[in-house]
Amino acid sequence: MKESTNQSGILTLDVFQKENNIVIRSAIAGVSGKDLDISITNDTVTIKGSRNEDKEEKKKDYFYKELYWGSFSRTVILPEEVNPDKSKATLKNGVLTIVLPKK
Questions:
Q1: Is the pLDDT of residue 3 over 50?
Q2: For residue 33, what is the domain's CATH number?
């Protein structure tokens, strides 16, 4: 399975199969559904979005700054073809789940 990441931000995910589906799962805490764009073709899935910080503290006030704020993008080339028209995406408790029926 090939994949690519955009330099803007890293989006970690799991890709696995379950019965007649391929499932993609990603923890995207801090991102609302309106800030996500999911594109699905027969053999790829692209997830784009943005995580916006409510208020940025002064740089000198941080001891650690590890959270990523800003845009992110991730494209995954799927191991087999899927039916994009019957795919479903849900966002619950900060976890995005995309279920892709195999062709």
A1: no
A2: 2.60.40.790
